[in-house]
Specification:
It is a single chain. The chain is α/β, with parallel strands linked by helices and 411 residues long. It folds into 2 domains: 245 residues, TIM Barrel (Alpha-Beta Barrel); 46 residues, Alpha-Beta Complex (Oligo-1,6-glucosidase, domain 2), CATH 3.90.400. Helix content is 37%, strand content 13%. The protein contains 15 helices and 12 strands. An 8-stranded parallel β-barrel has the order 1-2-5-8-9-10-11-12. It has a two-stranded antiparallel ribbon with strand order 3-4. α10 packs antiparallel against α11. The radius of gyration is 21 Å and the shape is globular.
Amino acid sequence: MELKKAVFYNILIDRFSRGKELDKEGWGCEGPKFCGGTLKGVIERLEYLQKLGVDVLLLTPFVKGTEYHGYHTTDLFSMDPRLGTLPDLKNLLAEAHKRDMKVIMDWTINHVSKKHPYFIAAAADKKSEYRKWFHFYGDSGRYKTFLTVTDLPKLNLGHPPAKAHVLEATKFWLRQGVDGLRLDHVIGISHEFWKEFRAAIKNEFPDAILIGEAVKGRISWRELPTLNLRYKSLVYLLSLIRIQHNEIMVWQYAPYFDAMLDFRFRDIVIEEIAKPKRPRLRFAKLLLKLHYSLYPKEYPLIAVLDNADRNRLIFESGNDWGKWETGIGLQFAQDNPVSIYYGSEAGVTQDVSLDHSARDGDLDIRRPMPWDHIDAKTFAFYKKLIKEKRSRATETAVPSEHGAAEKAARV
């Protein structure tokens, strides 16, 4: 599989499938709680994903934690039993690989849950061996967090035991057969760590796919100390006036990863396709050309439109399916990987904006997969675009009479 041409499918495990039989009963799940989706459910839906044409599964975290979405970790080495077991994971990997699909796990190492036993010990005893695993402010009970989320204490990855723990946990999952990692909130971690991390992982797992997520909305002054960006003050000021601060973040972290999630692509589609009365497609293409010119031609920027932390494109388009088709079409027209957020191909929509002042906005973009209401027209549209993307990739891979086509980075 050529990473530059890959089609990712982003699955929120708890909201995707409980298995074909249970899915027939409907979900009946409301609120920020576990709804019952599992890795076994994903396995039973591989045929559906194969029919769609995806070749990389991007799974939300499945390690032990406290929340349905998986980002509040309490043990980096264990499966969350509500999502599955280690044999379930290995079975999923085997079945996916039979279908020539890769499996990428979402990996959060910037922070853990405040219910993690190491943090509980550190907070309870100033002399605990785990005190230096976190960023406590002197002898006070205050500590650095993921941005300003007090439930998520930030790990001190400059402390050798904490760093060793994280590296060993990372290798543990790769040894199970996972094909790669989507590294969450990379801007919270130092460049020095990522340089060492890449070298350590690639030394033992040279084919492991490392994908970085470097994105942040407007940065507040309180959040600034939790970030490890270079040119931090400049990035902060640019975020206040909404001028391409995310571009700087992706650009400076890209060298440590095999690919980066491309939220600049989404911004352009929202600003030039979804929001205007009439889509400005030509201008959108010009902006994309300028955007891509900042990176090596063969560097994979994964075009993202929908995901678990952004309003769906159809919502941003005011439920205008014509604009939606234009945006999705532009996504698949790029010579870059694309990411499909579960349900987008099924016609899933949204009623409440992801506005943290609005009740349950995040839950509305994480609706359970409607297996009894898959929109056939939308599914066929995605399937057609994927097929066309594959066809273009095949054509460019055929050697010309003047010599073999230039090889892209392969995984």
